[in-house]
Amino acid sequence: MLSRHQLILRWSGFVCLYLMLPVGMIFAPAWIKLIFGISIRSCVIPALLVAAMGVYGIGALRGMIRVGDLFRLGVPCASWRKMLLRWLFFCSVLTALLAGIDADRLFLFPAKQPRFWGIVMIAYPILSVLAQGILFRWFYDAFFAPLFRTPRASLLAGAAVFAFAHIIFLNPWAILFTFLGGILFLSSYRGTGSLLFSGIEHALYGNALFTIGWGAYFYQGTVALLSN
Fold first, then answer.
1. Rounded CA Rg of the chain
2. Each residue of 74-92: pLDDT tens digit?
């Protein structure tokens, strides 16, 4: 059981990392332009990478994680099969949904910008997914899940902060998709103990969103960085 001092420290870290940082990212480009006179479209990826390296450093110093832990797999074939079938189902749903609300965007990205699309398919998992896995799965489960009374409560809270981190996109689709994704990815991490497995699942869904045409609702971050 956590002491009062530990509870205060962890809740403070929780608020700073998962609530204040995402809000700060909304206003960061304006602040940077005002203070330094530099115009940027987004600082999401740099902030994400710095935060991930910081929490990884904390874990490494405390002997809680090593580089090899990030890439350990050892997941049964049944878990892969279940994950891939679920991914195919949701891809079908996402395609049908976009066809109903904004059919002109369907597969527009790979059709119009195939080279840029290929770059995003490679860069998104490297620049974004791994860092998000460290922050919202490994670090969250190691340090903040004990703040909640039950595993289900901590799962929903983890999904909620993962969704809240995407408020910078300023649209409800991003929040809805990332909340559902947060449940899936954190559940996969807990069920397999593999950050790599949950990261591959995360990358599959993210790349599918960009490919199908939902990328317009997730435009900042990787795509904005690469398009500069």
1. 18
2. 899 999 999 999 999 999 9
